[in-house]
Amino acid sequence: MDSSILLPLIGIPIVVAGFALRFNPLLVVTVAGLATGLSVGMDFGMLLETFGEKFVNSRSLATYLLILPVIGLLEHYGLKERAQAWISSIASATSARILMLYFLLREGTAALGLIYLGGQAQTVRPLLAPMAEGAAVSAYGEDLPQWIRDKIKAHCAACDNIAVFFGEDIFIAFGAVLLMDAFLKENGITNVEPLHLGLWAIPTALSALIIHMFRLTRLDASIRRDVAVWKKSSNGVQA
Amino acid sequence: MSTLITINRIYYLVGFIVMLLVGMTLKDKGNPKRYTTALFWFLFGAIFLFGDIMVDQWGKSVAYRVIGFAVILISVLAGTGMLSKGSYQTTTHEERKVSSQRLGNWLFFPAVLIPVITVACTVLLKGVSIGGMFLLDQKQLTLAALCVACLCAILAGWKLTGGTPMQAVRQSRQLLDSIGWAAILPQMLAMLGGVFVAAKTGESVQHVVSIFVDPNNLFLVVAIYAIGMALFTMVMGNAFAAFPVMTAGIALPFLITGHHANPAPLLTIGMYSGYCGTLMTPMAANYNIVPAALLELKNKYQVIKVQIPTALTLLIVNVFLMYFLAFL
User: Which residue in B has a C-alpha nearest to residue A32's C-alpha?
Assistant: First the structure.
């Protein structure tokens, strides 16, 4: 076999090894890019040009930074504290119930194309996480340890990701659907409409809903067990 | 036809805000690496602020090479641990409690304005022009709408709390510093994806698969396409970058041409298999690492840890869905 056909793949083991050895990801990615380009014979100048062009053309990925000042300002004046106080006034609110409600709303609105209705910076940090955490705090007390709080907050971020990922492809004007459509047309397959792609997203979207909701129904019990472990260990220390 | 809020003007705004933060970092004596931290963000901000001007003045070739060099410098600064957090003026928990009681549920108002105005502008200002000028960038409508929404929310927050926009930017420095290099990783990966396409990686994947896999074993090829999408997405940090490589390498030659698969369910479920990979990789920094920083989690991989059970179950489900639905 001609081994030169494998050269373009050299970036993959570099990324995997770089991560395993815990090098900084920015450095790993840059080295992987350089190695891939140079191994297929691109000259260094052309490679720099590709780097610059792609970086400039993907600046839209960083526009979420515009949200940070608003969040910073509101938190300075007690947004998180307000979210926690408000949720603890609703007696039936538990961490898992809040997450389930959010999951349904987020996947449903994403399927309608309203992807920017939520997000990690827009809704998870300022609203969802303080509420889910606040519900647990009002159930188990202010001294709830950090590791249980972190588990709840990580579930908030996961909830947003999973709901939006598997809802968004149902909406036919979303980037992924347009990307698939363009790929098919480019390769001479013309009998597929974006609408078909959106429809075939539904089985996976429903599966994601069932799987993750099932996990969330068990979250409250899991938090309760964690609290029992914490109480037991803190009693042990006192005794 | 001209446009009022173009995507390029939004980039200027991002660059301008980053430069304000650079100035604050330079003055922050509580940051042990303030000069290199400031240089890191300066290079990043400069690409937003001066990128378009450089392309206009010097031509694409020279400008992109200079920016490519700056990008390498950025990754060296991050890779050699030259970034550090600083000291920040914040209120105490008690002060925040008092002010949250004073302002009540009105505090939610500016936060809720962001999604509401974004969606409203996206729907209502599509194709709207005044005096021959589009209000929002029609090609990047959502991002332009998001920018309008953030500005409105800042103004509403100013009115409500009395905190000025400048104060808002100052408060965001702690958030940006805790996100750190992860803020830049998505763009770095877009760059790596570009190099992979230029290096024709898809052909290599097809070659490797044809050596190791019997193309007549339908279930195995389906599983390799779905799992390959997930794995390659984990490396690339982005299903969009993995999709053309794996689909051109496996789905098109072996499944669509070889086994007459129905392309619509095949590709849709293939893309979703990639999303399962997105949930499991630190490379997808904007979904997995940035949130861990935003939520101040001790373990920056904890979001991934929570997502893995759902992602793996769903990936297995996807293999079967693909096997049954694409060959009805």
Answer: B192
* Calpha distance B223→A120 (Å, rounded): 32
Q: Are residues B81 and B122 in the same domain?
A: no
What is this structure's pTM?
0.85
Are residues B297 and B241 part of one domain? yes
Q: Which of B119, B145, B171 sits opposite A72 (nearest CB)?
A: B171
- Our count of domains for chain B comes to 3
Phi, psi of A224 (to 5 degrees): -60, -40
B51: containing domain: 2-87
Whether residue B319 sits in one domain with residue B291: yes
Tell me the CA distances in angstroms from B249 to A78, A158, B245, one per residue in order: 52, 31, 6
Q: What is the pLDDT along chain B (328 residues), one digit of tens a residue?
A: 788 999 899 999 999 999 999 999 999 999 999 999 999 999 999 999 999 999 999 999 999 999 999 999 999 999 999 998 888 888 888 888 899 899 988 988 998 888 889 888 888 888 888 888 899 888 888 888 889 999 999 999 999 999 999 999 999 998 899 888 988 888 888 888 888 888 888 888 888 888 888 888 999 999 999 999 999 999 888 888 888 889 988 999 899 999 999 999 999 999 999 999 999 999 898 899 999 999 999 999 999 999 999 999 999 999 999 999 999 8
Q: CB B165 to CB A69 under 8 A?
A: yes
* Boundaries of every domain in chain A: 7-57, 64-238
Type of residue at A49: E
ipTM associated with this complex: 0.87
Residue B179 lies in a domain: no
Contacts of B299 in chain A (CB under 8 A): 150
Q: Are residues B147 and B132 in the same domain?
A: yes
Nearest residue on chain A to B51, alpha-carbon basis: A56
Residue closest to A179 by CA, chosen among B38, B239, B29, B317: B239
Q: Do A29 and B288 touch (CB under 8 A)?
A: no
Please indicate, yes or no, whether residues B100 and B126 belong to a single structural domain of this protein: yes
Same domain, B203 and B312: yes
Tell me the C-alpha to C-alpha distance, in Å, between residue A106 and each of A116, A124, A153, B119, B310.
10, 11, 17, 14, 17
Q: Flag whether B15 is in a domain.
A: yes
